[in-house]
């Protein structure tokens, strides 16, 4: 039985594929986190899962984060630590090193203080970004003699982030001719080389400061520049305006679809058809 035109089109569209894996985050509490604080952790998970919607490689990742609020040294001392503790990659053709496990620890006394001033959620959101890879997986060497073998978007000490996706958004917002995004070089270990520069993305030039600088602000937000930087690390990302970055499709599928559709339409209507060939940027 001859298939109708609409069914052929649907079948061809369904042949389009995307080399993408699913992405999720699971917070594993050791029991020291109270219900209100754990709810904020879950809110942070929901935020990042709404923005990071997949991986650019074929396998999925469920990032496991061990979270706890032990006593460290009391309020206003060491807040805690957050880092990626295990990573994963495709050992054959992998281009990216992904965080697969991480740790988030906050001093219980500082948690109480941050709750009172209303910034605890921002701190959790910020530190979870580091566990995912912001500032921690910008140039991973992974036992390769000190030479980055995966994503390489930043040279330590340079103050210049060069990842293509984030840089393109930075150019849209600030300077079309910019060659890099300024990275913080002050603040010592834990701040320098792992955050956007406070002078450019902090209070000075923006009405609302960026959350991923090295300094906490009460009215901070996560910019599209930060979201796009995760596409540089191998994730598929949804920006605030709905644009999707990091999708890796099969260009040949579009070409085959266009050719087949042309043949079908030409045969169906038996007349000459002029084809306008469009150029697509596959993000």
Keywords, separated by commas or semicolons:
single chain; 283 residues; alpha/beta; four-stranded mixed β-sheet; 8 helices; 9 strands; disordered C terminus; signal; transmembrane helix; Peptidase; metal-binding
Summarize this entry quickly:
Helices cover 33% and strands 17% of the residues. By secondary structure, the chain is of the alpha/beta class. The strands form 3 sheets. A 4-stranded mixed sheet has the order 1-3-5-4.
Structure, explained:
- By secondary structure, this protein is of the alpha/beta class.
- The protein has two domains: 1-17 and 249-283, no CATH class; 23-245, no CATH class.
- The chain contains eight helices and nine strands.
- The chain has helices at 5-14, 35-51, 108-117, 120-132, 164-173, 198-201, 224-232, 251-269; strands spanning 23-29, 52-55, 61-68, 80-88, 98-106, 160-161, 181-182, 235-238, 244-245.
- The strands form three sheets. Strands 1-3-5-4 form a four-stranded mixed sheet.
- β8 and β9 (244-245) form a beta hairpin.
- α1 (5-14) runs antiparallel to α8 and α2 crosses α4 (120-132).
- The model is unreliable at 1-17 and 250-283 (pLDDT under 50).
List the helices and strands and how they pair.
Elements: H1 5-14, E1 23-29, H2 35-51, E2 52-55, E3 61-68, E4 80-88, E5 98-106, H3 108-117, H4 120-132, E6 160-161, H5 164-173, E7 181-182, H6 198-201, H7 224-232, E8 235-238, E9 244-245, H8 251-269
Parallel strand pairs: 1-3, 3-5
Antiparallel strand pairs: 2-8, 4-5, 6-7, 8-9
Helix pairs in contact: 1-8, 2-4, 5-7
Multimerization state: single chain
E-strand count: 9
Please tell me the overall pLDDT: 80
Shape: globular
**How many alpha or pi helices?**
8
Amino- and carboxy-terminal Cα gap? 39 Å
